[in-house]
Design the sequence.
């Protein structure tokens, strides 16, 4: 991938971009979250993205977070459209026993958070982000070969030109180095659904 095509939203103070690796050192009190449950809005995490109007594709990246050590330290994939419409997938450190592998989808200024607990000894994770028009799929993998579905979602502002890429942040009073490698954009690996056919929508408006 040509990393020159990627642009920063909130460029971090400390980072390194090589031909095959990106390193981001997070700053304390950086995060992405909107309103739900906590009733606050955090919108200051550094995001490195590329723009596309391609309707069907997949983006793969490997993350290494060996240095994460404090609650909510995180790094992963992101599609940041604006402050109130975005999604992300990551591992968030919790304690020395477990972490949260999860995803956040934010539509119209409200975030959700879907997670599963994984062992704290896990220090790397692959992600595959796939688009089919305005629907999206986030998958994860321990080896970059076999991916498991984390989330399917719809983005209300995700039907046209989008921006997507990587992010890293430390919501509390901490800092760590996040490492991103093996970045690829490829043909969409999220295949069309072969089960139940789409509903037929009948126009019920009165005849004039």
Sequence:
């Amino acid at each position: 991938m040509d990393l020159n095509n990627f642009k920063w939203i909130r460029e971090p103070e400390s980072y390194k971009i090589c031909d095959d690796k990106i390193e981001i050192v997070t700053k304390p009190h950086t995060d992405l979250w909107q309103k739900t449950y906590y009733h606050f809005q955090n919108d200051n995490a550094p995001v490195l993205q590329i723009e596309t109007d391609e309707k069907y594709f997949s983006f793969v990246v490997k993350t290494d977070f060996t240095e994460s050590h404090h609650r909510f330290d995180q790094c992963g994939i992101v599609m940041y459209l604006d402050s109130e419409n975005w999604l992300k997938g990551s591992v968030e450190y919790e304690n020395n026993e477990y972490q949260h592998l999860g995803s956040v989808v934010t539509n119209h200024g409200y975030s959700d958070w879907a997670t599963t607990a994984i062992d704290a000894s896990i220090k790397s994770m692959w992600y595959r982000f796939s688009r089919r028009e305005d629907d999206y799929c986030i998958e994860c993998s321990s080896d970059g070969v076999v991916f498991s579905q984390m989330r399917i979602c719809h983005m209300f502002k995700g039907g046209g030109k989008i921006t997507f890429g990587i992010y890293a942040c430390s919501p509390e009073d901490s800092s760590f180095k996040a490492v991103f490698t093996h970045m690829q954009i490829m043909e969409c690996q999220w295949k069309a659904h072969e089960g139940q056919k789409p509903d037929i929508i009948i126009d019920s408006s009165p005849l004039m």
Summary: The longest strand covers residues 98-107.
